[in-house]
Amino acid sequence: RTVEPLEYYRRFLKENCRPDGRELGEFRTTTVNIGKCLCSITTADGSALVKLGNTTVICGVKAELAAPAADSANKGYIVPNVELPSLCAERFRSGPPGEEAQAASQFIADVIENSQMIVKEDLCIASGKLAWVLYCDIICLDYDGNLLDASVFALLAALKNVQLPSVTINEETGLSEVNLKQKNPLIIRKHPVATSFAVFDDTLLIVDPTAEEEDLAAGTVTIVTDEEGRLCSVHKPGGSPLTGAKLQDCISRAITRHKEVKKLIDKVIKSITPK
């Protein structure tokens, strides 16, 4: 495993299994915690913690009021940010965001935009005067591969936990008035779910790769779908090319995975919703 890691892996792959005992198409155990049970970020308006095997990601959403941009007077803002602190894995260093964290933040921004999970017009309170800004901070606590799947999952779960207070603008004074006693859930139009694959020897696809598998793979691909089976995004940062048939296989598996993740989120939300 140390001297010839790729050959070591190939021996397992020939038997249609992986060193951690999983089959090629098997995901690691996935768990999600939503809301105030996360004592570390009780100040957030919505929060969630997702574990995908050892990979652990926490997402906190903070809502603030701001004036809309001049060129989009009827839209609010969504500002995603992915952090990979040095404590989550040896490969990351403290300091400004590295290339991987920046790429992940851009990926999340693209998923929000392409899937239309939140329509920015829904965040507008008064056109040209006031809108919500959602700061979505995604922090990796433990990194063992497949950051994108865990991040999209944590973001969706945290957004479903957000309750925004009622805000009106006083016509006489022109000032905003916030009613903290009356809160409404965020309108989520679509539920995107990411499914990542690692490509070995240009032909073999394995789902939910660990950090070790990502390093050894010839490439990775992430497919994002919504609840209608619509393709929201295909993210393939270089590496081996995929045939049309292989890509179609990835999309089919991603649609199946979406149902599992959506079921898990719905179950957890039901368990924390007051009767």
From TrEMBL:
Principal location listed in the UniProt entry: cytoplasm
Recorded superkingdom: Eukaryota
Exoribonuclease phosphorolytic domain: residues covered: 26-165, 192-255
MF annotations from Gene Ontology: mRNA 3'-UTR AU-rich region binding
Location of this chain's protein in the cell: Cytoplasm; Nucleus, Nucleolus
Keywords assigned by UniProt, alphabetized: Acetylation, Cytoplasm, Exosome, Nucleus, RNA-binding, rRNA processing
Protein name: Exosome complex component RRP43
Organism annotation: Dryoscopus gambensis
